[in-house]
Amino acid sequence: MQLSVELTMYPFNESYIPPIKGFIEKLNTLPDLTVQTFPTATVIMGDYDHVMDSLKTLFKWSVETHGKAVFVAKFLPNTELLK
């Protein structure tokens, strides 16, 4: 099953751009994901399990690297039905 996730990050830092850029850069290094970045959100698409595992890993990395942040997400499973 395919999954599309629209993700927005709100870091708890005065300097919020570096954590957001770092998260997106790290996300773009992961294989087998389609990533589209917009001014207000990033959309991640791929195999359901791979997307979820990747987000789990990236959330942990983000907290360990940049500290706390709020992530707001919208999940749309079975995106292949939209083609």
From TrEMBL:
Family annotation (SUPFAM superfamilies): MTH1187/YkoF-like
Domain Thiamin/hydroxymethyl pyrimidine-binding YkoF putative: 5-63
Pfam families linked to this entry: Ykof (PF07615)
Top-level division of the source organism's lineage: Bacteria
Protein name, entry field: Thiamin/hydroxymethyl pyrimidine-binding YkoF putative domain-containing protein
Native species: Halioxenophilus aromaticivorans
